């Protein structure tokens, strides 16, 4: 089975796994999209699509250490929030917030979205998250940010002019007006925002005015999108961006989650990127259903290349889908020390620490299997399902023992241990449906951790309830990442397999 479903089929989420706060733009027949990345390096994953349905990661905007500084000891869900991606005047512009760095907002540019991206320009005078750039007909650039406020900006230098002025507070009584995007469409300037908070109350509202700075008149049908108080399988819908397709039709991309397993429902893949159609009535957008099996758009579907199930670590650079906690210095993570292997050198004694040496990939399927061949002869490390430093399950090898450790909130316990012969060992994780009948309060899934026996069979050492690695339990803005780590000494990994088990 291919790593991603590359059949010509329309399906939501269009980018599964922890890919929140999507921002999209079109250049000719090509679409580009950016997402948040929080405590992970490299930052701001970038995707390309020809059909809005199938997206291929082409890089990360912040992939050099001097572009992305995430301070030592920084906890999960700090770092990079909510990029805004636009194409203007022959280049791509990306403005984003690093909440863990003084100065906060920064701008990078590129002529090719696959990179290289420029060094960041620091923005002065913007005090909020979720910045957005929009250009007036005369070339004036406006930076609009959470609150919702706006200031004129020189995007080349990051300098702003004047004091930010409030544009709109959103629907009276709704909390957290944020994620603004400003567009010139027809005779109006439209101000699209998220409100209600990024959890179950999330929604999208819009206002319009005759100038980019308002005054803005709210849409009488606000919120134009929300799933609050419904049993829709996609919840928390919000943080949307609009894009006009090459044929003139309109679409929105947005974040949503897929809670499962009873009440209140637990979502484990973080906030994912969804697509929905948009029509216009009386000059206001009407958002269609955020369907898990949407109708195909009225143009040929273009599935991207199939990603290999196995990474053999034969390349000198890691694929763009690999992410590391906080940073990835070559002395701690390299494929050059032992060719064909990934070598991790520990810094921090466990995944409980925000500075752990961990390199993984987003869990993108509700059911999946990961395996890795580990050489622990010089250290201790293994395979982890990580939500954050307080919520993770690991299977690790050291010398002649393999053990499973669960960290849930302030509790940390060794769940299982088994002696093994010295040498390499294949460790594995399988995430699958809970065994109880559907509809019962089963939790979202079961995370089984184990090892491969010399005869090739697989032994599960522990099968753990997946709800403790969900955002409803852990909080925060991320989702599960499955990967390799070193907790002591040096640990080598020959290959890593990730295989979807659901459609
Ligand atoms: C982001 C805010 C939000 O900055 O969550 O869902 C915050 N929306 O707009 C972090 O992703």
TrEMBL record:
Gene Ontology biological process terms in this record: carbohydrate metabolic process
Domain Beta-xylosidase C-terminal Concanavalin A-like: 310-499
Active-site residues from the entry: 21 (proton acceptor), 178 (proton donor)
A Pfam family matched in the record: GH43_C2
CDD domains the UniProt entry points to: GH43_XynB-like (cd18617)
Residues at the site labelled Important for catalytic activity, responsible for pKa modulation of the active site Glu and correct orientation of both the proton donor and substrate: 130
Molecular functions (GO terms): hydrolase activity, hydrolyzing O-glycosyl compounds
InterPro entries: ConA-like_dom_sf, GH43_C2, Glyco_hydro_43, Glyco_hydro_beta-prop_sf, Glycosyl_Hydrlase_43
UniProt KW keywords: Glycosidase, Hydrolase
Residue spans crossing the bilayer: none
Family label: Belongs to the glycosyl hydrolase 43 family.
Protein name stated in the entry: Glycoside hydrolase family 43 protein
Organism: Streptomyces dangxiongensis
């Amino acid at each position: 089975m291919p790593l991603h479903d590359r059949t010509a089929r329309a399906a939501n989420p269009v980018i599964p796994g922890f890919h929140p706060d999507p921002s999209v733009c079109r250049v000719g027949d090509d679409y580009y999209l950016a997402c948040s990345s929080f405590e992970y390096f490299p930052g701001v994953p970038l995707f390309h699509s020809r059909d809005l349905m199938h997206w291929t990661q082409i890089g990360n905007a912040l992939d050099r250490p001097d572009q992305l500084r995430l301070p030592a000891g920084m906890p999960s869900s700090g770092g990079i929030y909510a990029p805004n991606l636009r194409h203007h005047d022959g280049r791509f512009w990306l403005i984003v917030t690093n909440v863990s760095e003084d100065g906060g907002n920064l701008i990078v540019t590129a002529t090719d979205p696959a990179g290289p991206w420029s060094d960041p320009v620091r923005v002065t005078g913007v005090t909020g998250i979720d910045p957005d750039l929009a250009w007036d007909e005369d070339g004036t650039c406006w930076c609009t940010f959470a609150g919702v406020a706006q200031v004129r900006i020189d995007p080349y230098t990051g300098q702003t002019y004047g004091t930010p002025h409030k544009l709109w507070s959103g629907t009276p009584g709704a909390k957290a007006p944020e994620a603004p995007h400003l567009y010139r469409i027809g005779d109006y300037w439209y101000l699209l925002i998220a409100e209600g908070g990024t959890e179950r109350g999330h929604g999208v509202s819009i206002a319009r005015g005759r100038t980019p700075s308002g005054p803005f008149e709210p849409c009488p049908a606000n919120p134009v999108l929300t799933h609050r108080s419904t049993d829709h399988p996609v919840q928390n819908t919000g943080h949307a961006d609009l894009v006009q397709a090459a044929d003139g039709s309109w679409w929105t991309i947005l974040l949503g989650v897929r809670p499962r397993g009873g009440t209140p429902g637990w979502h484990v893949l973080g906030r994912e990127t969804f697509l929905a159609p948009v029509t216009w009535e009386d000059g206001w957008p009407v958002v269609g259903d955020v369907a898990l099996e949407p109708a195909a758009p009225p143009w040929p579907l273009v599935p991207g290349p199939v990603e290999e199930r196995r990474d053999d670590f034969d390349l000198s650079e890691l694929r763009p889908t690999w992410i590391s906690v906080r940073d990835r210095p070559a002395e701690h993570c390299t494929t050059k020390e032992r060719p064909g292997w990934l070598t991790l050198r520990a810094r921090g004694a466990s995944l409980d620490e925000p500075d752990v040496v961990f390199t993984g990939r987003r869990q993108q399927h509700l059911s999946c299997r990961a395996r890795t061949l580990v050489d622990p002869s010089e250290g201790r490390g293994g395979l982890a399902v990580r939500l954050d430093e307080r919520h993770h399950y690991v299977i690790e090898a050291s010398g002649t023992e393999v053990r499973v450790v669960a960290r849930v909130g302030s509790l940390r316990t060794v769940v299982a241990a088994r002696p093994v012969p010295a040498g390499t060992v294949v460790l594995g994780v399988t995430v699958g449906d809970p065994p109880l009948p559907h509809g019962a309060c089963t939790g979202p899934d079961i995370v089984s951790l184990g090892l491969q026996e010399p005869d090739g069979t697989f032994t599960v050492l522990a099968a753990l309830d997946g709800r403790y690695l969900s955002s409803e339990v852990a909080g925060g803005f991320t989702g599960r990442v499955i990967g390799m780590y070193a907790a002591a000494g040096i640990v080598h990994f020959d290959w890593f397999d990730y295989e979807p088990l659901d459609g």
